[in-house]
Amino acid sequence: MPLIRTPRTLPRVLAPAGVDALRAALRTHRDRAMVDAMVLGGLRRCEVPGLRLEDLSAGERRLFVAEGKGGRQRVVPVSARFFAAVGAYLESGRPAAAAARQVFVVLKGARRGEPLPAAGLDEILDGARSRAGLERATCHQLRHTCFTRLREAGMAPIEALSLRVHLRIMHVLPDHHRVPPHPRKAARRRRRAAGGTSRRRPILMVRSWWERMRL
Q1: How would DSSP label each residue in 114-172?
Q2: Has residue 77 been placed in a domain?
């Protein structure tokens, strides 16, 4: 019996009007900030509840994702609208007695002040989707909406791909968004610049993906 391969369809994205309707249906600054993190920063469902207070850099408009998919870390540039929503939430919505390091916490009930689980994010999004009259609006769909809009705005494909998958984000960000190199790597670079050796075993150099594509 021949194997039948399931066709892979393109991800569905929300129209700008759908995003506006979804945000309008959210009831708190916390909920709007979480949705903005996915729509404007492309964060995953599991990454939003894991954001810590020290991961926010409002002055540079970026987020540090400490535990991404596969345990990888990255720095993500985000619109000022996200930080405006976070600022309003931290000022008037987040319980003052909350001791959790996570940004987003439970606001009501016996678990008030505890970190918000991913299931709580799903419940908030499902309620907003129903109130907005949208047929579908998932965390994954919001993430794809972010990258689709970035591409439409003129972002190069490789930069959009670097934000989606696990490439080093420092290669496509401006200098003020880059993560400092590891001390050992920085020392090797200084030795090579001074004409010394990197003190590493010689390795087989391969062509970059760009060179291979040009062949």
Answers
A1: SBPPHHHHHHHHHHHHHHHT-S---HHHHHHHHHHHHHHTT--HHHHHHHHSSS-GGGT
A2: yes
For 151-210, the pLDDT digits (tens) are 777 765 545 555 554 333 333 344 444 445 566 777 777 777 777 655 554 433 434 433
SS3 of the chain: helix, strand, coil, percent, to 5: 45, 5, 45
Domains of the chain: total: 1
Query: In terms of residue numbers, what domain contains 135?
Result: 16-176
* Residue 125 forms part of a structural domain: yes
Residue 27 structure tokens: 């009831």
Taking alpha carbons only, the member of 125, 99, 147, 57 closest to residue 65 is 57
In a domain, 204, yes or no: no
